[in-house]
Amino acid sequence: MSLSKIKTILLAASISCMAASMILLPEKSFEASVRGLNMWWEIVFPSLFPFFVLSELLIGFGVVKFVGILLEPFMRPLFRVPGVGGFAWAMGMASGFPAGAKITARLRQEGQLTRGEAERLVSFTNCSSPLFIFGAVSVGFFHNPKLGIMLAAAHYFSNFCVGLIMRGYGKKETKPKQYKRASTRPIFAQALSALHHTRLKNKKPIGKLVGDAVITSINTLLMIGGFIILFSVLNKLLFHLHITLFLAKIAKVLLLFFQLPTDLSIPLIAGLFEITIGNQMASQAVDAGLMYQVVMASFILGFSGFSVQAQVASILAQTDIRFLPFFIARIMQGFISGLFTFLLWIPFEQRFLIHSSAIPAFLQFQVNWWEKALAWLSHIGPISTILLLIVGIGFYLHKMRTAN
Length: 404
Hints:
single chain
């Protein structure tokens, strides 16, 4: 039997098993669906929508091209990507998964990146947002706002390291001609010229540009919501079918190899599928010890979970960007982040957890801000999501009428 046929049988059997499980466990499936839906319309949609629309408009108006030329001397030597990668990197860190992949795919479609550059860029521009790290994980799960700075430092430092490592990917790729600037004009003048030419090249009226940005962003967020709900249900079903416990027994061998407590086996398996559930379970494994709990949380944040990776894969499928480099980068980031947390835990514990019971002023401001932002989104998120969906439907109907 060929490998292709075996793959077909395995995929068909897996989907059939999942469908049967949902029929046998309707209440658990419904609970998981509601949990995923709440996460999407309370947090994900209202927090990502402005960034998605803004990035589309910035690309359309040529601002990204302007920023790209200014950042070229920084991004090219460090990461072997053009300056526009700095925009994707910054937006990815600010807004969280999967904004980096969305912007990278858009830049690839615009022709501002080669395939190799896009694959290098997407490997380190997908980050967990500060809102999730400080608000959800450190405050919501661990109930310890001081841990936010440790988790954030490990996460973003490991992300930077992955970018440096991945610069060696695709060394045989030749440097594209469009990035060779022979002009002797100052770089700022070149950036302004590129911004102007990009705006003139885009023939769309401002109203149509805004409408297309809203429609594209909503379509992407609907896809993201579907994956969040799907993997929330999948994680629940795997637990109640005792598959998670079976995989946890295998994970115990890996944890023993790295001399980590076996109590973290179930959080590890849960985190491989879904980042939020994994971090929540890691915070509840109190017998493992706080240091190991945080190490596991750092690994899960770096790996991102199959749910986020599936979202990225769906976005990249619209281009010729391959998913494998991104997947390898997530494995690397998970291990680097966990190792960084382990190595710096003792000085962090002595500085923030033992000798001082108070939160430093700079950290207190940041934690309060993210905690309030998370609480505000949970209250206003559903209403804003519904209103934005109505606006999107209005733009879509207007587009259909003008097309006819």
